[in-house]
């Protein structure tokens, strides 16, 4: 079996979610991270179940997150993981993908895509449990709605006013029920993944 580049020492070099937010202070998507964090709620049932999993000797005490701040799946999904970590007691460490290509290469989506966010779960003594990539299945199923909404933005002949109108519609989508449903589905999928792996 190949030895992972994510040793306990490497994991400890990751930054906290608060440090991630500070590191992207000048990034144009910082407000998107904050909005998704503020709009994510972990239910009492999910909190209880996740805490029970973390409390197990073989439970997910640690999570490594790979991402980049320009990615919509990251500015939606990473704040959800931050909320899960807070609710459950998981130690979350964040890494910028493009500065950590060796880590990314271990967790390629379908063995070839550098998809983000990538969330990797470990036990307290740093044994690998499972990983989750990019977005929940519900988002994949409903993605045509978003693609239809943003398709006109690829038209180079749009007037500035038209472009602004489509961007506004995209931002409104990010505050709507479909986008919110993707956040909820992320919580559900991560809980189900960990329950399935731990039995």
Please describe what this structure looks like.
- 53% of the residues lie in helices and 12% in strands.
- The protein has 199 residues and is of the alpha+beta class.
- It has a domain at 8-135 and 192-198: Glutaredoxin (3-Layer(aba) Sandwich), CATH 3.40.30.10.
- A hairpin with a 5-residue loop joins strand 3 and strand 4.
- Helix 3 (30-38) packs across helix 5 (72-88).
- The protein is globular, with a radius of gyration of 17 Å.
Question: Keywords for this structure?
Answer:
about 200 residues, alpha+beta, Glutaredoxin, four-stranded mixed sheet, globular
How would you briefly describe this protein structure?
The protein has 199 residues and is of the alpha+beta class.
User: How many whole angstroms does the radius of gyration measure?
Assistant: 17 Å
Molecular shape: globular
* Biggest beta-sheet profile: 4 strands, mixed
The largest beta-sheet arranges its strands as 2-1-3-4
CATH homologous superfamily (4th level) name of the domain at 8-135 and 192-198: Glutaredoxin
Order of helices and strands: HHHHEHEHEEHHH
- CATH topology category name of the domain at 8-135 and 192-198: Glutaredoxin
User: How many alpha or pi helices?
Assistant: 9
Distance between the termini: 23 Å
């Amino acid at each position: 079996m190949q030895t992972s580049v994510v040793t306990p020492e490497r994991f400890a070099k990751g930054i906290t979610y608060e440090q991630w937010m500070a590191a992207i202070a000048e990034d144009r998507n910082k407000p998107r991270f904050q909005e998704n964090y503020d709009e994510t709620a972990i239910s009492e049932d999910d909190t209880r179940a996740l805490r029970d999993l973390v409390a197990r000797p073989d439970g997910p005490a640690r999570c490594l997150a790979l991402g980049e701040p320009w990615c919509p799946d990251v500015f939606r999904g990473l704040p959800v993981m931050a909320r899960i970590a807070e609710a459950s007691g998981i130690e979350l460490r964040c890494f910028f993908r493009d500065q950590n290509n060796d880590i990314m290469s271990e967790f390629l989506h379908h063995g070839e895509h550098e998809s983000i966010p990538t969330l990797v779960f470990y036990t307290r003594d740093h044994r690998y449990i499972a990983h989750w990539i990019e977005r929940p299945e519900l988002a994949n199923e409903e993605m045509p709605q978003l693609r239809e909404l943003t398709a006109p933005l690829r038209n180079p002949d749009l007037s500035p006013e038209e472009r602004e109108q489509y961007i506004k519609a995209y931002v409104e989508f990010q505050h709507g029920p479909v986008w919110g449903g993707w956040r909820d589905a992320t919580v559900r999928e991560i809980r189900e993944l960990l329950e399935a792996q731990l039995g």
